[in-house]
Amino acid sequence: MLPRGAGRRITGGGLDITLKVGRANNAVASTFEVVVPAGFDVGAHVHTEGEELFYVLSGVLDILAFEPTAPSARDWRSWESDTGQRFLRGGPGALLYVPAGCPHAFANSSDEPATMLFQAAPTGHENYLQELADPPGRG
Length: 139
What we know:
This protein is mainly beta. Helices cover 6% and strands 37% of the residues.
């Protein structure tokens, strides 16, 4: 059990993440609370292994998880699936599940921060996020 605000903080490079459960807990998935600043865009990308889950707790996020018919390098918000699906602008309660190999993205296009619960399976994603927060030359 963790009280509000507890966990290992990962900050830097625009990231403000609190690891709640990770590899050290012998868990199946790492679980994080993420504060997504206004204007932040992770960009569309693919993980060949592992699954991710994003659940909006507060604020609004643009979220996407599908294979586009004609991907544009300029803006993933213009992508469309073969069924006509486009990105979702979701508030509290919006969920994004990303299976391995699926292109996905999220962004906060609002003027206010958003908060989400983020899970990544298998565990260990916390190491990747720490590397992003500690770029070369930062210590």
